[in-house]
Amino acid sequence: MLLASFIKENKEKVLEGLKIRNFKETHFVDEVIVLDEQRKEIQQQSDNTQALINNASKEIGQLFKSGQADKANEKKGQVSEWKTQLKELQEQADVIKNKLETALLSLPNVPHPSVPPGNTDEDNEVYKAWDKAMPQLHENHQPHWELAEKYDIIDMKLGVKLTGAGFPVYKGKGARLQRALISFFLDEANKAGYTEYIPPHMVNEDSARGTGQLPDKEGQMYYVTADDLYLIPTAEVPVTNIYRDVILDEKDFPIKMTGYTPCFRREAGSYGAHVRGLNRVHQFDKVEIVHIEHPDKSYDTLQEMLKHVEGLLEQLGLPYRILRLCGGDLGFTSALTFDFEVYSAAQGRWLEVSSVSNFETFQSNRLKLRYRDTENKKHLAHTLNGSALALPRIVAALLENFQTTEGIIIPEVLQKYTGFDRID
RNA sequence: GGAGGAGUGGCAGAGCGGUUGAAUGCACCGGUCUUGAAAACCGGCAUACUCGAGAGGGUAUCGGGGGUUCGAAUCCCUCCUCCUCCGCCA
Description:
3-stranded antiparallel beta sheet; 43% helix; BirA Bifunctional Protein, domain 2; RNA-binding; 13 helices; alpha+beta; Helix Hairpins; 21% strand; 8-stranded mixed beta sheet
């Protein structure tokens, strides 16, 4: 959420940003500015009335003390008039505040100047292309969903029986591969200086709001009605919210956190060949990295995160490319996002496996995540996060790219985790 | 799940209807003293919104929300959290 004051002072910049995003509902910008003015005005009136009441109440107290009950009762009459006025003012104020909140929540983050304009994923900029060899598959190669069945390592049908479509069951070497990847990713994150967390897999409404899942993506989350809790769509939500309502010292930067969690996404309305197998599922595993950074350093940090993710993919030996998302494809809360895609050879497709973003102050504003500078002034911190990495599509690419007539070869870095070097 | 008890500033801990944004202690910051340090003494020390060039002013906040009252940290309702006991349980 942007600050109303920021919108007022940077109206042109905000409008330009919305244009880059191809965001049509620019009327919210003026609404915010007007409503914020109205809010101040009515707040002023309401505060003044309250001040009158507070003063009169003190006087009444004094009068009772000095035994002038009749005068006190006279004052009471006047106060009750003010109270009626106050109530009306507050009702008006509530209406305005609600409208303002709605308008503010409707506006996405202002894109970073480097974000290219564009509407769809076709307009994304290839930031780093893959210029090395592509995997060469043998003649009878198969897509990962067939391999998974052939080697009996992932059972989608069993998932349907137990839960429903999109809930894969990993079995035998498939399960062990899954666990190996999680351990590998976490170990790499630890080596890179991230503090590891195991957060809850359900969060309350405040947390979902803090990182911007609510109200924007309400339908995307599984919701436990009996307890008013949301299943997390990513570790970003609980991990970033660790720092909700926190005021840091400048010297606390950078804060680097990592966590493995399952992720739950309803993905309503998805269907077709592109969501086959592991390409899109309702529950998947992911290791996330989260940074909280000083505003001056957040873009250097974003580069550092890209390097970290690149390192993982290189060690796994998967062809990858990095995209700079265009305005239209950029997430609501993000200022700049780089997507990582790996090449899944049997499908002949690039699959998104990581999304690394700088949210600047968009999340921290709602989180009330601030820091004190050397002059003791408070400012909003910057938050960033990235997948490092999301498992299913990595598994898909591993299965497809490393399939041989003698089975699937496990990358060397994973072998000490899996305890086997091939799936056959 | 059942029965009790409790939630006050960074921490500890008073207050239990009327100048209480909140005593006191500790911590922290500045100063005096000191060769330096400690001790002692003096002063400062919450957050948000808002008015003001500034000095300074207004409003809100004593777990969250709602209510009673001219007036609530103090009374009532409700939710949350923690503690003790019982039950259940990986």
